[in-house]
Amino acid sequence: MSESHQYISDAISILKQLGFPSKQQQERSALTLLALLDLRPDGNWQDLQSPLMGVTPIMDWMNLYYQKQYAPNSRETVRRQTLHQFVSAGLILYNPDEPNRPVNSGKTVY
Description:
4 helices
């Protein structure tokens, strides 16, 4: 297994250990977590970051670093079936830079 695929497996394992439902224990959620940690295939767990990213930049990151391309209409799937659960579980914050940002803002970040 390549190192990049190992990170995906590691992220799935972390989601399982955190008690996320099986619907979030898959590649899309793992890649979302890796994006929000900025853990690139050539990176390591000791050098994690926490960049503020919106849904489209997260999807672009997945494609750029892990060659996983999602169709543009997948944005809502990523938002509703992964990011929403991460926020509800307290794993990530919604608009931590500006909590009063409108819900429908194009500047939403996690």
